[in-house]
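Recall from the previous lesson that a structure prediction takes nothing but the amino acid sequence as input. Here we apply that procedure to Ribosome-recycling factor from Planktomarina temperata RCA23. The sequence below is the only information supplied.
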Amino acid sequence: MSDDPLDIDIDDLQRRMDGAMVSLKTEFASLRTGRASGSILDPVMVDAYGQMTPINQVGTVNVPESRMVTVNVWDKTLVGKVEKAIRESGLGINPQTNGTIIMLPIPELNEERRRELTKVAAGYAENCRVSVRNIRRDGMDQIKKAKAAGMSEDDQKLWETEVQALTDAQIKLVDAALETKQAEIMMV
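The prediction returns the following tokens.
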């Protein structure tokens, strides 16, 4: 952003909204509908050593067979915490512990499980929408500051319209991605 308070950085807002979309697509990629994938655990965070840490930083995630994901936890004192984090993640997977190895049998996708996954996907999409709206609010705040610094009302309306159009376009992309993912999940 430039030093001029009358400049509104639309490119920065666009970049940040695009970042929210990239994050959403990463979360959607973790919702596998067919084969097991280690990326299913990417959004799961573990309370390790006093801070929230991704599972792949406390153990090795493997996919030994098409319906099984394993996590070989490096520190055996964290096994219980990793198991609890997976159980409470909303993935609908019931972990089984064998020493420092946590096995995650991926259930066959029945109708109920598919509906659960569509709800998880909808939650991810809503989080993305909230991020986009927060970025919109930041843009509107920039416009208010510029107005206080001497921006004309016509320019203010122009910038507000542009920020709102950017937001609406991004929300449509989120909705389209959600619709596609839910259709993919529900496909038998």
